[in-house]
């Protein structure tokens, strides 16, 4: 129940509710296993499920918002939570930040590849590194299914998902 001590403009109320929602979203992004956009059991997903891993909360929100119209999306802000999430949800594709503190993208990909049940999940690196030598090294050594330069656009990210998942 919402109690208002004095009359208030609907516009002011709307702005305040948006502010509270954004604050709650930022706070939830600080807590490891961040968000399950759909609370259904994994077998009940009617759409493809995408896991997005990035240490930048703004990037997580940005990608989640680009994808959730078409896909089930889970976002987490730590590479350490990936295996836990993969054990909980059937995942069709992973967008993985290349540079993260604690455990970076290449280390996370290596860990994913060690588990036979997750080995075949396509991984796309998200990176701000655009130097040709570094990108070539990423592709040759780690063999991800692709990479996208940050910041991404909706067209780029949805196109990459369609290219990989069909």
Any descriptors?
166 residues; 42% helix; Rossmann fold; 6 strands; globular; alpha/beta; six-stranded mixed sheet
Quick structural overview:
The chain is of the alpha/beta class. The protein contains six helices and six strands; from the N terminus they run αββαβαβαβαβα.
What does this structure look like?
The chain is an alpha/beta fold and about 170 residues long. The chain has a single domain, classed as Rossmann fold (3-Layer(aba) Sandwich). About 40% of the residues lie in helices and about 15% in strands. A six-stranded mixed beta sheet has the order 1-3-2-4-5-6, sandwiched between helices. Helix 2 links the parallel strand 2 (about 50-55) and strand 3 (about 70-75). It starts with 9 loop residues before the first helix and ends with a helix.
- Please tell me the CATH architecture by its name: 3-Layer(aba) Sandwich
Q: Which sequence of strands runs across the widest sheet? A: 1-3-2-4-5-6
Count of individual domains: 1
Q: What is the CATH topology? A: Rossmann fold
Q: Whole-Å distance between the termini?
A: 46 Å
Rg estimate, integer Å = 18 Å
Global morphology: globular
Strand percent estimate: 15-25%
Name the poorly predicted regions.
30-40
Secondary structure layout plus pairing:
Blueprint: H1 10-28, E1 35-36, E2 49-53, H2 57-67, E3 72-76, H3 82-88, E4 93-97, H4 105-114, E5 123-127, H5 132-142, E6 146-149, H6 154-165
Parallel strand pairs: 2-3, 2-4, 4-5, 5-6
Antiparallel strand pairs: 1-3
